[in-house]
Design goal:
This protein is α+β, with helices and mostly antiparallel strands. 20% of the residues lie in helices and 18% in strands.
């Protein structure tokens, strides 16, 4: 079985803001594109436009309706990928050493040349963050875009995971969570960042920022005086638009 390093020099990972994520799936698309074109075997798609599509994804977004104790229900969009755990069970169960955690930065990777596709790592992961690529017969998982973050041929602004670079809402953050003075560590401390399923004892590096409470929805009285138009006659741009539509 594969051994985990006792310590790592860094703890590179993601901080995901559940209050900001809008569930647009841009991170999913960017991840699929980058990891199909670059690191390792391409992420397969089978019968993509047929009746029974299937394929490999390293990042997925799940959406849930949550009812807080107080206030209105909320829709929470929950992105999930490998959390690069400090005590990663997917590494210690691997019979060939294909799954391993890097000492220099804490990233958990798969050596696809050594992977036999046995699936033990996927069964041991409590987060469902690994997928067997059916076309290639090897296990796939988030690499934190290791081929981007150290690539000096890219502009410095692009040396972050594709999902972070693409997120239009700024809900994804990347950095060293082992450094208490890093931007991501400060953000976790400020917002009360949480581990996913801490009871599993895996010590995930990635953190989630909880959604903030939402304002109470205002109930409409239903009175006719509350439903009167704001203005009887449109002015400005709306007046011009009204005239233009009348002329059609």
């Amino acid at each position: 079985m594969t051994q985990l390093p006792e310590t790592t020099d860094k703890k590179l990972g993601l901080v995901i803001d559940l209050d900001t994520c809008v569930g647009c799936h841009a991170c999913v698309t960017a991840c699929k594109g980058w990891n199909t074109e670059n690191y390792g075997a391409p992420l397969s798609d089978m019968d993509a436009y047929g009746k029974d599509p299937a394929g490999s994804f390293l990042n997925r977004v799940h959406s849930f309706e949550v009812q807080p104790d107080k206030g209105p229900a909320q829709t929470i969009h929950f992105p999930k990928s490998c959390l690069h755990c400090d005590d990663a069970p997917c590494v210690t169960v691997c019979p060939t050493g294909a799954s391993y955690k890097r000492r220099e930065d804490g990233i958990v990777l798969v050596n696809e040349d050594a992977c036999i596709g046995c699936g033990l790592c996927a069964w041991s992961c409590p987060y469902g963050a690994r997928e067997l690529d059916q076309a290639e017969g090897v296990m796939k998982k988030c690499t934190l875009c290791v081929d981007r973050i150290y690539n000096e041929n890219l502009p410095e602004v692009d040396r972050v995971p594709a999902c972070v670079r693409t997120c239009p809402a700024g809900a994804r953050h990347f950095g060293d969570l082992g450094d208490p003075d890093s931007d991501v560590s400060r953000l976790v401390a400020k917002r009360g960042g949480m581990d996913l399923m801490p009871e599993q004892g895996t010590k995930p590096v990635n953190k989630y920022l909880p959604p903030r409470p939402k304002d109470t929805l205002m109930e409409h009285s239903g009175r006719s005086e509350d439903m009167q138009p704001v203005a009887e006659t449109p002015t400005g741009f709306l007046r011009w638009l009204d005239k233009a539509l009348e002329a059609i």
